[in-house]
Amino acid sequence: MPSDPLLSVRDLKKHYPITQGVLKKEVGRVKAVDGISFDVTPGETLGIVGESGCGKSTAAASLLRLEDPTGGAVVFDGDDITDYDDAGLKRFRRRAQMMFQDPSSSFDPRMSVGESVAEPLAIHGMRDRRRRRRIVENLLERVGLSASDFDRYPHEFSGGQKQRIALARALVLNPDLVVADEPVSALDVSIQAEIISLMRGLQAEFGLAIVFISHDLSVVREVCDRVAVMYLGEIVEIAETETLFDDPQHPYTRALISSIPTPDPARRDERVELSGDVPSPSNPPSGCRFHTRCPEVIPPEQFDLEQREWRHVLDLRLRIDKGIDVDDVRAFLVAEDVADAPEAVPDAAVERELRREFDVPDALSDRAAEETLSSGLSALVAGDLEQARRTLDEAFTTVCEREHPELERTASGSEPACHLATESVAIDPPANHD
Amino acid sequence: MTDPLLSIRELRVRFDTDEGVVQAVDGVSFDVERGETVCVVGESGSGKTVACESVTRLIPMPPGEIAGGEILFDGEDLTEASEKRLESIRGGRIAHVFQNPQSALNPVYPIGAQIVEAIRLHRDVSKQAARDRAIDLLDRVGIPEATARVDDYPHEFSGGMKQRVVIAMALAADPDLLVADEPTTALDVTIQAQILRLLRDLQAEFGMSIVFVTHDLGVVAEIADRVVVMYAGRVMETGSVHDVFDRPSHPYTKALLDCLPGQGQSMRPIGGTLPDLKQPPAGCRFHPRCPHATADCRTGTHPELLPVGSGHDAACVYYGPGYDSTVIRGESVSESRAADGGDAVADSDSDHDTTGGDC
């Protein structure tokens, strides 16, 4: 780190209780943000990216205590803001500001934009109306509007112009930190480009640190110095922007980067495809939270399985763990005209259908693995779900499911949280037992 | 060559508003061949959605009005078709998929019932047969365990899964043409990649044509066979996806490609703002924002589409007589980008200081 961090986040957590009944008994927790740590140095832009539901916006709100964190520390310029009382919080918010995604809903339609931009000044004790007006007029010009726009109302502006005004409002107190939550996501590409270059220019001028939250990796690549990738409430990789994009270490980062559509029709089929949706944060998967979707999930040592094959076997096993209704499969096969009635569907056909549904080949390349799988599936089709689970869970397991990986610095300079990146696993390929 | 499946000719659509007449689509022509994917790309307000919704007259009338032109679908002019005729075409031979799957599904009915309704509207089949087909369609669009999920309600599906359901519904009557309006814009990138792959696979399987409306050039590169670039109600450029991306020939197309973020070279904002469609500028609609605009661009009517290559047209005066088109086209994009990558920032400052696109 070149200088002391302006903002230092340690093990930040924000959980939302799920309650039930009149007594609001807590029956579970949505772990929206579950232990994230990072630093932001003065003048730096840190990006936080991830899919919807990964907790990036909750993280943003918790940074400024718009949401009170459940645990962890947010140290801003030496003080832990989670300890602040109301007065301390007000002082802190003079130095840290926020920008939101939707410029239409972040302005009061009945206040002129000048009044909106000047409001923070009034709140923080600037009584002189004329002085407020002078500052705001000057700032409106700096963001590419004109001083005479002070008396106009939000509906008179386009989305891009409103986002310029939002930027002016965030800057009016001359803050050290701006947390921008998807500030350009609602805008057209051409407008996006203008806002981004405006933010960049003003950042240099004001010496701002920016935490930039976005789901759009192209924008993040354009704007940020460093990037943290979030998945299900955790940071799975953090690195300098160019390191992250040139040599992503975490399989999730790789998948995310490869799903960005590139404006080059010649590169159509180079995609790593992620199967399935993001699991629920109320009951995140054990071990590495990405193991349920990871295309590079580590295979068990005793089998010699191809990566894709192993992925599909694991998908099938995880699905059986969750509970699978074999009768539904029979009903589907009846709809497909395999048999006239569910009882008449042969067991072998059910097994074949299960394999087809999960893209598992009819015979696995490893003989021992195939024997275990088919005995497990037979038990399942025969109606013994417990036996099927026992057989499959014991054989088809992975370190990714058992152990939670920590962020660890690698040779590339990136810090991924992945078992593949830690030496012991990366060096020893899965042993071969034929 | 056979006739195109869809041929839009000189389409004009306008909206009568309190503030005046908005000419949303002003003389747009393009063809869609059988089995082909055509992407209509443009910024908000370019008229891309209005043009595509006019095909089955989904625009509200009034205030909307198809003021001229023809929409030939398999030889039949849909602008002349009766409302009854259109009802049988909508969801039948032409199906639509919209941006927000949430609002395309009825929250109080199971998804299966909604697909069955769509099937039975266009096919005379028994309820059981329709249900079997619904399950089959859900399976085809990649809903895991279709039999178990056919009776689930929309809220029990994630956004990506809902969009799959909407696509299954659109496929209910084996359409010849699928009009997909920003179908992946509301989705995460990883889910977007899945849906784009699905549409490509389904197209290969069913052989339908797709009109894909989007603002995202990355998505265009991913799925299009041909591209129609729209701006302010007009077609600026049209050509095969490779031609348009390798040799963008209209200054607007180039500007749009240059303002994409994260491409490794400096991003350049276009500068200026979209024109007011109640009073579109004279001459070329793009001239107030165009770095190459000349006196000819500022007067008269919008330039006609002129051929710049085989099946590749651009509406720019520079391709007419007396102009040097290399000014616009330069070399191939990659070369020109590499060449001016270094001083791109300075360039964008001097070119685009109209509305403060500068820093």
Give the C-alpha Rg of chain B. Answer: 22 Å
CATH class of the largest domain in chain A: Alpha Beta
**The first-level CATH class name of the largest domain in chain B:** Alpha Beta
Indicate the radius of gyration of chain A in whole angstroms: 26 Å
N-to-C span of chain B: 52 Å
Which fold does the CATH topology of the largest domain in chain A refer to? Rossmann fold
Summarize model confidence as the mean pLDDT of chain A.
87
Largest sheet of chain A: 7 strands, mixed
Q: N-to-C SSE series of chain B? A: EEEHEEHEHHHHHEHEHEEHHEEHHH
Q: Strand-residue fraction of chain A?
A: 15-25%
List the helices and strands and how they pair.
The complex is a heterodimer of chains A (434) and B (359).
Chain A: E1 7-20, E2 25-40, E3 45-49, H1 56-63, E4 71-76, E5 79-80, H2 86-95, E6 96-99, H3 113-123, H4 129-142, H5 159-171, E7 177-181, H6 189-206, E8 209-214, H7 217-223, E9 226-231, E10 234-240, H8 241-246, H9 251-258, H10 307-322, H11 326-335, H12 347-357, H13 367-381, H14 385-395, H15 399-402, E11 415-416, H16 423-427
Parallel strand pairs in A: 3-8, 3-9, 6-7, 7-8
Antiparallel strand pairs in A: 1-2, 1-4, 4-5, 9-10, 10-11
Chain B: E1 6-17, E2 20-32, E3 37-41, H1 48-54, E4 64-73, E5 76-77, H2 83-89, E6 94-97, H3 101-104, H4 111-122, H5 127-140, H6 146-149, H7 159-170, E7 177-181, H8 189-206, E8 209-214, H9 217-223, E9 226-231, E10 234-240, H10 241-246, H11 251-258, E11 306-309, E12 312-314, H12 326-329, H13 333-340, H14 344-351
Parallel strand pairs in B: 3-8, 3-9, 6-7, 7-8
Antiparallel strand pairs in B: 1-2, 1-4, 4-5, 9-10, 10-12, 11-12
Helix pairs in contact in B: 4-5, 4-7, 5-7
